[in-house]
Amino acid sequence: MKTIRLTIDGATAQVPEGTTVLEAARKLGVDIPTLCNHPKLEPHGACRMCMVDVERNGRKRTVASCAYPAQDGLVVTTSTPKLERMRKLIVELLWPAWTTPAKKYGLTGSRFSGAIPDCSLCGLCVNYCQDVAKKNAIYFQGRGIDRHVAFAPGMARECADCRECFNLCSSGWIVSRYATEASELWEDNPCFAGTNNC
After folding, report:
1. Per-residue b/e over 31-60, b at no fewer than 16 CB within 10 Å?
2. DSSP 75
3. d(CA 3, CA 126)
4. Rounded CA gap, 156 and 7, in Å?
5. Rounded Cα gap, residues 55 and 61, in angstroms
6. Residue 132 burial by Cβ neighbours in a 10 Å radius (0-12, 13-18, 19+)
7. Which of 9, 84, 94, 107 has a Cα at 20 to 30 A from 183?
């Protein structure tokens, strides 16, 4: 297999062809923050927290490192004032769903508080449900600021039998929303309440 040589923050990495920049950085012990990345899922670059600057043959770009392939001669910079401003903005936009890295950016709140009240929209639960669990029980509904994760009608029981995506959710939204959905389902359908009225 072909070996790729690239430079990340001044250090040389040698990785197999097909490795992403994020994977190469992790091999060197370089921390690039991520939200939507998971080893069981194909990278899709939804959260944009892993953006890095790359340069090759005189061309400079800002790319999502989780989805960008390592290339021979690529020079990667993982942290600049511009990149840190971008990441800080993303954390603010996702407040309070993703407060874990807030301290790093000196955040105790958000200018956009309330825009996305619970869910970070990382897509891990949706992608896992579709691509790994093959349940298609949840999906993205709406667009722009109205975009949110929704349960497919009548699919709360599928979640009761699965729950595999619960530990992927950094905000805890999927667990709390499932509890609400299941509660409503139990109230509306006595079959799920263990009665004989089915």
Report:
1. ebbbbbbbeebebbbbbbbbbbbbeeeeee
2. E
3. 34
4. 47
5. 6
6. middle
7. 94
Query: Which amino acid is present at 164?
Result: E
8 Å CB contact between 113 and 95: yes
CA 85 and chain centroid, separation = 19
Q: Name the E strands within the chain.
A: 3-8, 11-16, 51-56, 59-64, 75-77, 138-141, 148-151
Task: Give the residue carrying structure tokens 């953006």.
Answer: 51
Answer whether residue 186 shows pLDDT above 70.
Answer: no
% the chain with pLDDT above 70: 83
Distances (CA, A) of 82 to 2, 41, 74: 33, 28, 20
| 85 close to 106: Cβ distance less than 8 angstroms | no
Among 29-33, 41-45, 78-82, 123-127, name the one with the lowest average pLDDT: 41-45
Amino acid of residue 53: D
- Cα separation, 110 vs 123, in Å, equals 22
SS3 of 69, please? strand
Considering only 39-43, 86-90, 192-196, which range has the smallest mean pLDDT?
Answer: 192-196
